[in-house]
Amino acid sequence: MVIEVTDANFEEVVLKSDKPVIVDFWAVWCGPCRMIAPIIEEMSNEYESRAIMVKMDVDGNPATPAKFGIRNIPTTLFFKGGAQVDKQVGAVPKKKLAEKLDALL
Length: 105
Prior knowledge:
By secondary structure, the protein is an alpha/beta fold.
């Protein structure tokens, strides 16, 4: 299950997680964001016990994307131990995201 995060709970859900976290920064009006949404959902089921997948709507939560320099969406950030360790900008195949996540496990 993909978790919706906000500026208010980002630190608690993402930075304090004991598992690797993928954060999908997206917006309702973004076509490529809709292309990777099912991939993120699928990965959340496949990696259920090993990693956490979250989504953040950049329009409703401007502080966190600004903090991490998100200028284009979709942007996917990878966190481990409370630190950003990787980044993917744009819609990419599932294999690419899985490779990046597998490197953190």
